[in-house]
Amino acid sequence: MIVRLELAPGVVVTESLLSERVGIGRTPIREALQRLAREKLIRVLPRKGIVVAEIDPEAQLRLLELRREVERLVARSAAERSNDTQRTRFRELALGFENAAASNDDIAFMRADKAFNDLCLEAARNEFAAAALANLQSLARRFWYHHYRQTADMPEAARLHAGVARAIADGDPAAAGGALDALLDNIESFTRTAAADAHADPPPVPTA
C-alpha cells in the first residue's frame, strides 16, 4: 500500500486502522511497522503517531550511489552462481518484463521487478549484499511508482530489466554488469529529472 501510494506520503496511520484495513492482528502489524521504520518508509513520531515518509528525490540520488555498486556485484555474482532452476526463472522474468513493456502494464512490471530483485539476491548467495539492499528496494520502487508517469519511460525500463535478466540467465557476468549499468543509468536520469521538477518554480497563476 505504501509503495503503490494507497497510503500517501505524509499520511498519519495507526495500528488499529492498518489492522482493520488489511485484516490481520495488531501484533503482526506492529512487527511490520518496525520493519517499515527500518526501511525508512514510515516515521514513528513520539506522541504524534505513525507517518508515511515523504518522497525525497535528493535522497534517491544518494541511494542510487549505493545501489550502483552493490547491485553490480549482485548481478555479476548471480550470473556466476545461479543454478539451472534459477536461470530458467530469470528467462521467464525476462519474458515477463518484455510483455509488460509491450502492454505498458505498470503493475505487471512492478511485480516482475520485485520477483527479479528477490531472485537476484537468492542467486548471488551473498548475505551481506542482501542485507545492504534489503532496506533500499522498497524505497526505490515507491519513488519510481510516484514519478514514472511524469518523467520515466516504463517500457524502456522494463526492456532494460529484461536485458539484465537474460545476461544472468546466460551465465555471463560481464554482460550482466554492463546491462545493470545501463539500467541504473536510465534510473539515474529519471531520478535527476524528477529532482529537477521538484525544484522547479510553480507555473504562474493566471490572472483575469
What this model shows, in words?
- The protein has 208 residues and is mostly helical.
- The chain has 2 domains: 12-52, Orthogonal Bundle (Arc Repressor Mutant, subunit A); 57-199, GntR ligand-binding domain-like (Four Helix Bundle (Hemerythrin (Met), subunit A)), CATH 1.20.120.530.
- Helices cover 73% and strands 5% of the residues.
- The chain has a 3-stranded antiparallel beta sheet.
- Helix 8 runs antiparallel to helix 9 (173-199).
- The chain is globular, with a radius of gyration of 19 Å.
- Mean pLDDT is 89; it is low at 201-208.
Architecture blueprint of SSEs:
Elements: E1 12-13, H1 15-22, H2 26-38, E2 42-45, E3 49-52, H3 57-81, H4 84-103, H5 106-124, H6 127-134, H7 137-151, H8 154-169, H9 173-199
Antiparallel strand pairs: 1-3, 2-3
Beta-strand content estimate: under 5%
Number of strands: 3
**Order of adjacent strands in the largest pleated sheet:** 1-3-2
Q: How would you classify the helix and strand content by structural class?
A: mainly alpha
Question: What would CATH call the class of the largest domain?
Answer: Mainly Alpha
**The CATH homologous superfamily of the largest domain:** GntR ligand-binding domain-like
Count of discrete domains: 2
What's the CATH architecture name of the largest domain? Up-down Bundle
Report the principal-axis shape.
Answer: globular
| CATH topology grouping of the largest domain | Four Helix Bundle (Hemerythrin (Met), subunit A)
Radius of gyration: 19 Å
Q: What series of H and E elements makes up the topology?
A: EHHEEHHHHHHH
Main sheet record: 3 strands, antiparallel
Helical content class? over 70%
Distance between the termini: 41 Å
Instruction: Provide mean pLDDT, rounded.
Output: 89
Low-confidence stretches: 201-208
What count of helical segments does DSSP give? 9
